[in-house]
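Morning F.,

Quick status update on the modeling queue. The single chain you submitted on Monday has been processed. Sequence for confirmation:
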Amino acid sequence: MKVEFAPINIPLKRRIQTVAVLQWIFSFLLLGQFCCGFFVILILGNFWFLAVLYLLWLYLDWETPCAGGRRSQWVRSWTVWKYFREYFPIHLIKTSDLNPNHNYLLGFHPHGVLVAGAFGNFCTGMVSASKESVSYVLNNEGGGHASIIVIGGAEESLNAHPGSLTLNILKRKGFIKMALKHGAHLVPVFSFGENELFKQVANPKGSWLRNIQEKMQKIMGFALPLFHARGVFQYSFGLIPYRQPIHTVVGSPIPVKRNLNPTTEEIDELHALYLQKLRQLFEEHKRNYGIPEHKSLIFE
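Structure tokens below.
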């Protein structure tokens, strides 16, 4: 395989952008394992008392991620996120104003491999995606709160091939029920370019690789797409995403009346309306971002 190295005279700004994305990749894929390993070192070394203090803090702090987390404007305003956004670059396109007197539940599509668009636009202050956490965010009577959920979840990441428009959404109705219970207006969001950031080893449904990935997902709770892209100093292989523009288009809100005990029929009706609005959003904007006219979303 011929290796294409990056030119030496690349501007410093682009180098910093690459470093910003590199730290994001490390945080996404390895930070949890790194922290666990560091914890084991503390226990086995002479600093076991620090590990005990951490376990005590973890016990006392267990519910915080489901109760709004610890929003830090300092972290949210880090310059590293600016360089992260500019690497691709990431753009946010608003098609309608959101009334601050309401709460909103935004459905983000597609998942992609590592949901770069969702992170860059919304998640530099993320909290747990559990039902308790979403309820906490949407349970504000005064309005002005929004929860953004990547609807397709880990399962959809296995479909994240360049050019793919397949969304895992037909059986995902929990977010619809959540919106009804809290009276949160639903907002479809489609991120054009999300699936173009990485290449993935071919894994069509029914293949041995896909079967193994799906079984491991059920066991571990998260998917393991075998993806690759470019490196830090060369463009031929690695885990750094390609510099492909991401345009995240936020649709118009779907009004939702509060219903503490929605029936199956009411959930299905709102779900069908959401799918209709999501498809409409995609069709209205696809030609602006290089999607051929004959290509449409596939719902599974």
